[in-house]
Amino acid sequence: MLNKILPVAVSAVALAALTACGSTSGPGAGAAASGGAAGGDAIVMGFSQVGAESGWRTANTKSVQEAAKTAGIELKFSDAQQKQENQIKAIRSYIQQKVDVIAFSPVVETGWDTVLLEAKRANIPVILTDRAVDSEDKTLYKTFLGSDFVTEGKKAGEWLVENSKGESQVNVVELQGTTGAAPAIDRKEGFAEAIKAAPQIKVIASQTGDFTRSGGKQVMEAFLKSNPDIDVVYAHNDDMGLGAIEAIEAAGKVPGKDIKIITIDAVKDGMQALADGKINYIVECSPLLGDQLMDLAKKVIAGETVPERVVTEETTFTQEQAKAALPDRKY
Ligand code: GZL
After folding, report:
1. How far is ligand 1, taken at its centre, from the CA of residue 160, in Å?
2. How far apart are CA 128 and CA 312, in angstroms?
3. 269 in a domain, yes or no?
């Protein structure tokens, strides 16, 4: 079902009336009256994905694509290669194509108001998935489906506090996610908040590795050169933690023992490293948002009220728990 101009037979007055009233919840009066694409009923969703930077992102893309198929939703999908301008272009393209609903994971928090206002004026509802925007105007999107990244950072910090008892000094290096991205900002905040409970824990260096394995490795190599006494790596995602493991081993140290590692995501490669003792603790961040996203899209298009915020459920893993969980991991 595409948001089309009504058939020309409709009088100008009726068209003006429909356009004037618009629909603040559905895809717009035009689509309701004109049926689906070429008369079909399938909902058309335009989805702008951050990129393919990590195992989490790959699993998230798979979840969205499979869920669209299962839900009978026609998915127009674009990969922004971690560039905001590509996401804005994609969203504008979806508006021109008059899709029924737009969903996207904003690569960074800022700079979205203009394009989201264009979607709103085109009567196309927007769903935020995975990451948030900093827009003050909450009418620019219908709901935000994703994790609580501050809580994830807090869980990582709380584990370190619990496991640093009796230590006189604990030097932490932090591998941050993409600069300006909600998970990077919030995971840093949550971790810093939690470690206040143990003044002996100090973040001695913090730098972005852009959520990639290569980025984590490069930054960790630099950290190792400039900081002789690193006790812990706090990586905002598994991929950067796995890169750090490569750097630590190349420096002749034992990851998980000489230098403890805490990461966030719990993708298969991270869980394997945890089970192998190279990572010490992982906070889960589920990428399996597809089914919830399609359910929310159908509700929004049907004009139903949806919660402003839908927080995904997730847990944490120790090395022993990883060994037990690995056989059943879906991603
Ligand atoms: C979190 C997601 C983050 C993951 C990274 O919801 O946005 O982006 O933690 C991914 O692995 O690159």
Report:
1. 21
2. 13
3. yes
**CB of residue 53 inside a 6 A radius of ligand 1:** yes
56 lines ligand 1 (CB under 6 A): yes
> Does residue 141 contact residue 296 with C-beta atoms inside 8 Å?
no
Q: Alpha-carbon torsion 46, 50, 52, 56, what sign?
A: negative
Q: Closest ligand 1 atom to the C-alpha of 264?
A: 9
Same domain assignment for residues 134 and 155:
no
Which of 48, 50, 53, 56 has most ligand 1 atoms within 8 Å of its beta carbon, as the pocket-test mutant?
A: 56
Indicate the pTM of the whole model: 0.89
Phi, psi (deg, nearest 5) at residue 76: -100, 115
pLDDT in tens, 155-173: 999 999 999 999 999 999 9
Residues 126 and 77 in one domain: yes
pLDDT band at residue 7 under the 50/70/90 scheme: very low
**87 and 168 together in one domain:** no
Q: Ligand 1, atom 11: nearest CA belongs to which residue?
A: 56
In a domain, 23, yes or no: no
| Whether residue 284 has its Cβ less than 6 Å from ligand 1 | no
The answer to whether residue 325 is domain-embedded is no
